[in-house]
Amino acid sequence: MVSNRPRITKVLDVIEESSTVRSLLFKDEMCSKAKPGQFMMVWIPGVDEIPMSISIMKDDQAGLTVRKVGEASTALFNMRVGSMIGIRGPYGNGFNPIIGKVMIVGAGTGLAPLMPLLEILTNKSASIDMIVGGKTMEEFIFVNKIKEILSKTESKIVVTTEDGSHGIKGLATDAILPILREKRFDMIYTCGPELMMKKVFEMAQEFNLPVQASLERVMKCGIGICGSCCIGKYNVCKDGPVFNSSKLKEVKDEFGLFKRDHSGKRVIF
Amino acid sequence: MVSNRPRITKVLDVIEESSTVRSLLFKDEMCSKAKPGQFMMVWIPGVDEIPMSISIMKDDQAGLTVRKVGEASTALFNMRVGSMIGIRGPYGNGFNPIIGKVMIVGAGTGLAPLMPLLEILTNKSASIDMIVGGKTMEEFIFVNKIKEILSKTESKIVVTTEDGSHGIKGLATDAILPILREKRFDMIYTCGPELMMKKVFEMAQEFNLPVQASLERVMKCGIGICGSCCIGKYNVCKDGPVFNSSKLKEVKDEFGLFKRDHSGKRVIF
Amino acid sequence: MQEPDLSVEIAGFKMKNPLMLASGILGTSIASLKKVFEAGAGAVITKSIGYKARVGYDNPTLVEVHGGYLNAIGLSNPGVKEFYDELSNSKIGDLPLVVSLFGAKPSEFKEMVSILDELNIKAYELNLSCPHVKGFGIEVGQDPKAIREIVKSTKEETKKPLFVKLSPNVSDIVKIAKVAENSGADALTIMNTIRAMSIDIETFRPILANKIGGLSGPAIKPIAVRCVYEVSRSVRIPIIGCGGITSWQDAIEFFLAGARAVQIGTAIAYEGLGVFGKIKKGIRDYLIMKEKESVRDIVGLSHGF
Amino acid sequence: MQEPDLSVEIAGFKMKNPLMLASGILGTSIASLKKVFEAGAGAVITKSIGYKARVGYDNPTLVEVHGGYLNAIGLSNPGVKEFYDELSNSKIGDLPLVVSLFGAKPSEFKEMVSILDELNIKAYELNLSCPHVKGFGIEVGQDPKAIREIVKSTKEETKKPLFVKLSPNVSDIVKIAKVAENSGADALTIMNTIRAMSIDIETFRPILANKIGGLSGPAIKPIAVRCVYEVSRSVRIPIIGCGGITSWQDAIEFFLAGARAVQIGTAIAYEGLGVFGKIKKGIRDYLIMKEKESVRDIVGLSHGF
Ligand SMILES: Cc1cc2nc3c(=O)[nH]c(=O)nc-3n(C[C@H](O)[C@H](O)[C@H](O)COP(=O)(O)OP(=O)(O)OC[C@H]3O[C@@H](n4cnc5c(N)ncnc54)[C@H](O)[C@@H]3O)c2cc1C
Ligand SMILES: Cc1cc2nc3c(=O)[nH]c(=O)nc-3n(C[C@H](O)[C@H](O)[C@H](O)COP(=O)(O)OP(=O)(O)OC[C@H]3O[C@@H](n4cnc5c(N)ncnc54)[C@H](O)[C@@H]3O)c2cc1C
Ligand SMILES: Cc1cc2nc3c(=O)[nH]c(=O)nc-3n(C[C@H](O)[C@H](O)[C@H](O)COP(=O)(O)O)c2cc1C
Ligand SMILES: Cc1cc2nc3c(=O)[nH]c(=O)nc-3n(C[C@H](O)[C@H](O)[C@H](O)COP(=O)(O)O)c2cc1C
Ligand code: FES
Ligand code: FES
After folding, report:
1. What CATH fold (topology level) applies to the domain A101-268?
2. Looking at this predicted complex, what is its ipTM?
């Protein structure tokens, strides 16, 4: 009856993804049936409530994948089996999975919303080119899982690290150009640092390819009324988090340039 | 969504039943599909809101039949085609129409809730014995209509007036005894002055016959929370207005003895 | 797991369970009150009784709105003397009966209590908070001096517990609550309805004959929870929560906020008297799930955060 | 029948229709405000701006309850100087823009107005009624002296119309309204949210990080209608109604109660921005049905009864 209220659920499983990233699994009917790319507001009682992508959906369970950064994400990272969290959502529009040749560019916890997308796409697409970027080998998450999923289809994965400890040395975006020159795509999906996504978007524009990018902004209400997540005339929580090319063009004065902090003040990227 | 709130409707027709009684017809989906014996709270804007039996139901229209008594009923009586009233309901339990031999005892505007019952019963019952009482010829209502309805079945009507101006001279209850001695009934329905109904109930008890009597008490909320219409442990608006024999027995310390005024004070009949 | 203890005690008045019938709902006769008790209430409260009879306002006295009801019954009551005749110790028996009283001045309360006190009444609730009757409720309930005098002088007249029912229609309910406590109130009932209004757009008219009435039901629950929370952190006497309680979850929320017992009114319009049984069962199951031995163990638990 | 006139005028500020976006909803950037205007609002109000930046409260800052929402955003805002940089006359264009301001003392309001006044702002709304931020909202809004000083000194600084937004969390809103009127307010916005709370029964915790927040949405509508009715009968300046308006019927109810314009906030959570268009069409059709030429013709109509 009242849906925008935390549903308390217990952490059922904690999966160590890397030394700084963990996935939490819990029971939640509604989020277990979300669209890929949708997110939830996760209440960590006594600490904070933060937006988290839905990274796992199976049966009546959902999961999130968190990197410990500040107070809230660290509290979430430190949760154990049996800890109580509050979930509301799923919120936002999510990715629009298409049938065809797709490229997916992800980095860091930006991979979280891409995982459910990947699973759907493998059942739909003829081919997936997946580019996964990161700073260093240790920080990588999901790589084995991605390989396993992709193994079912005619697909390819390219890994890049800034320090060269794994895959190609460099930025994820460095790895894209040669592929784009070689192959024609029907869609590019991306999630990761905004500057990376901006680069992906610019390259896609050059090659005249459509993009779906999942953005992040400070979120409070999660339902499109407080305005804290605004970018241009859009609210990331409601009109996003996934922006397609035409929307990205509309917000070009902000996308990759600045975001707003909790007070609404502009913060340059 | 919110149902206990006056629905404003326009008076579509005013029918002169006698010099002091009129019927008003109006559109109201909900009350047009009520059970016989149910009532509505009728708002006369600027005047009062009073309980009124549903006396007419046809298509999407309902009707009431009002005798001018005090301020509110006179205001209602004086309404014209186009006047606005507010309707909430239908409320209460209503009569339970049975298949079999029935007696109906009505007097004055007590006939109002009996009319829809009569129509249903004529389609169900093998025989109806209808006793209609009144003070004097001029005050009679519905007699022709009743005769018309009854003509369709193997039924009988007895009319009594206190002044002998029509039918048998005397009280309605005087006419009952000979009929009860002669014939066996499956149910006696009654509505009218409480002392009359009390008498009917006592006679029925003697002959071991079940009764359904429609009571009146001061009503405010109409939905069983304010307590102003209480009789014994029951609320007439919700547990009634129709009381069967076992309930009438339970309220024998009040039925026909006293009612309560608007302050809750007891008023002896 | 052992059966949890639902009983609570308020200023010496022991109730088998913490659910009370709120004043003004079905509280006209002992027969009705008994029925509510049999449906599962731990205590029942009469409608508010005044010194003299009052017919109250004309109808409409009640109208539904989104999430609740507005009422302006207008403190209709037969007067304390007629009401005394309605009651008798044989009729009351061991019904856990609380009598609600309203009045304009201390002497009226004193007088009423002196008439009723010999009856088997378990406690009085002083209604200092009716939001829509001039001179009786809210004017009194907003005025610290009036509260002090009424509570003090009523207290002198009886040894039975005095509950004082407060209004949310004030700038600072905590301040008012402290005045009531310091004047001798044994418990506080928080809260009465909130002044509100509904206008019919077809006729341009306020629907209630009195125009303004009191809002009750789920709509006011978060306001009542807040009032209970704020007041219970500032006074020592027990709080009885009231306002919009419709489900066992609502009742639990009030206990956690700091209420020791709760009153149920408007929910009866939505759920019938079965609501008492349902809420009681829900509280029991909750206590078992949370491994708590009694209702007392969860009162004010939210204060720890 | 001629097309009815939906325009209204408040202290010289002409609006094409009487629907305004309430403060704090989508009011962070000019781009968002423009979108709301394009969706059909007659005027838009920024979120409340203070002298200095405030991050506001931690999340959770919002939680749904039966019939509405609680929020405790905590007046987060980038501060007047940063906000000034956000605006520029070329960006504002002819957007019918009202800026909402909050502050702790008269000098802050004065200072903010002196910074903003050269911009193409149509009016200011002084938020003297935020129910959950200590020292800013409600403490100010309950104190006649503070209101007088703030309104008077702000008035000295600008020729633009001043709306004063009042809190229902007071004993007597009419008294406060008169103080604001006598101090120079050009219009009154009635009302802000009501202090309320929601506790999670699984974790025993208040859900909002700030524990107490403000209740908005349909639940508070009958309270807001009552406040508008009472105040509009006692002051001469125009009233802007606000609180729970979700449908055109709700808007009409406020006009009949005495509001000349209405603000819409929480309804957007239920209905999206389409709510402006729907309400506008509903008002138009209603005026035609009732054979009224303009919104002005129905303002305060309920007072006649
Ligand atoms: C739609 C969306 C999906 C996200 N999905 C994930 C995910 O799957 N995994 C993951 O690890 N992180 C995700 N994030 C980021 C996450 O919400 C937090 O920002 C991050 O975990 C750091 O929070 P913190 O409070 O611990 O750090 P802090 O040190 O408090 O803040 C670090 C930064 O996080 C940002 N932040 C803090 N609170 C919020 C908030 N309420 N809303 C938005 N940003 C905030 C601020 O910009 C701040 O600069 C997502 C964000 C969004 C908007
Ligand atoms: C279930 C029910 C069905 C009824 N059906 C009809 C009907 O079909 N036709 C009809 O003419 N009358 C009917 N009445 C009676 C009607 O409601 C009024 O009582 C009657 O019309 C006189 O009202 P008044 O206010 O004009 O008179 P008043 O002079 O004000 O009152 C006369 C008497 O009517 C009673 N009365 C007044 N207001 C109420 C009230 N709110 N609730 C109950 N009693 C009240 C009082 O006992 C009073 O003694 C019904 C009453 C009830 C309870
Ligand atoms: C029809 C009605 C009549 C009421 N009469 C009284 C009364 O006589 N005395 C009183 O103290 N409170 C009265 N109240 C207020 C209730 O006791 C209670 O405080 C209020 O309705 C909030 O609780 P609820 O939401 O559970 O109904 C009345 C409420 C209603 C709905
Ligand atoms: C999320 C949210 C934020 C708000 N922020 C402000 C604010 O900054 N300033 C203000 O004056 N009112 C603020 N309000 C109150 C609204 O402007 C409005 O007065 C209130 O919500 C009642 O109207 P509604 O029921 O239509 O929402 C806020 C309300 C909400 C729900
Ligand atoms: S988080 Fe509030 S509008 Fe997006
Ligand atoms: S009229 Fe209120 S209980 Fe029957």
Report:
1. Rossmann fold (3.40.50)
2. 0.96
